[in-house]
Amino acid sequence: MSVSHIDDLPLARPQGCPFDPPSELGRLQAENPLVRMTYPDGHVGWLATGYAEVRAVLADQRFSSRYELMHHPLPGMEEIGELPPAPVGDMIGLDAPEHTRYRRLLVGKFTVRRMRQLSEQVERVTAEHLDAMRRKGPELDLVAEFAHPVPAVMICELLGVPYSDRDTFQGYVTALFAADGPPAEKFAAYQNLQEYMGRLVSAKRADPTDDVLSELTTSDLNDEELAGVGGVLLAAGLDTTANMIALGAFALLRHPEQIAGLHADPDKAVEELLRYLTVANLNIRAAREDVELGGQLIKAGSTVTLAMHTANRDPLRFADPDALDLSRDAVGHLAFGHGIHQCLGQQLARVEMRVAIPELFKQFPTLRLAVAPEEVPLRPVHQSIYGVHRLPVTWS
Ligand code: HEM
Known about the structure:
Helix content is 46%, strand content 10%. By secondary structure, it is an alpha+beta fold. Strand 7 (291-293) and strand 8 form a beta hairpin. It is globular, with a radius of gyration of 21 Å. Protoporphyrin IX containing FE (HEM) binds next to helix 11 and helix 15.
């Protein structure tokens, strides 16, 4: 008989392969892609691991994104008690129609065309950082010198946030997303980020410049909403792409036979890296009404945890899913989510990755790890964005 109920969310990655989702989740997917799961606060909800099931939940607006309706699947979070509703401006935690108002405003600022126009800027920023690496090398931490600063400069330039303030806002964002930080510290970090963005918004209103935040001052968003939106965009644009670039480089260093494919078709290669690595590895929704899914009844009020990394390794959707194959057509992967909350910054992230990853390997063809692969410090498995803390590399 197949498993129908589990007591904890499996989190540990398999020994020896930091890129694969927990093996237990793969086994569940094969046996029963939608199972009951007991949450740390005692709630009996669901866990979806199959591509079809995860995609169906994300596409269905009977499943809510409102935090206050959710039970958290990660141990430790139950201490907070009920999750608070989304702070002002945090569209990720809203449903339609409140979500629609923000989304409509922002979608026009992140068009494919506008992001493609940023290519030259990304090329310049990438080249500057690769030059600096050459001067500093031949051994350094790729996260600190390249994977982190390139997307940080780009999101700052796009939003109109001074890059010179990076240490300040990065500190707030890191504390906000810290996997094991005490809730009080997270709330303080959010408050600090909000105040920082609030000061910036006032400055943009008084003296608009050529950037997204200044453009948004002409919308109907009030100062508090604008500071909230600015904070979400900044936070969402920092660690996500940085970890994709760093983990992507790590994966390619472990699979050097794939590097030719990266240069042959960077667009295709980036989609496969997104699928294979799925750094935003978990997502959560709450059923607002009874929903029938895959022959099972998900009752109103139930939380559903979505194992995004496992869904993107579903053999029913992708042949030989555990192989990194940069020549495959990975379109349709769920690394940017799906449905009304699908990543707003995905075109920006794509432009950054399509330039930064191939250029790194073009300019440093002898790039290799400076430590044994198992010594590369990985981010904790329960962090919302997976990746590496540091990636020590060297070249000759
Ligand atoms: C490779 C990099 C990235 C990955 C893997 C990623 C992943 C995701 C995912 C999975 C979601 C859906 C969340 C949900 O369904 O609840 C999302 C939403 C979002 N992302 Fe990204 N993201 C990336 C880069 C960015 C960047 C650079 C920005 C900055 C502009 C950004 C801004 C957002 C925003 C604002 C949302 C919320 C959209 C909404 O609620 O309508 N992301 N992202």
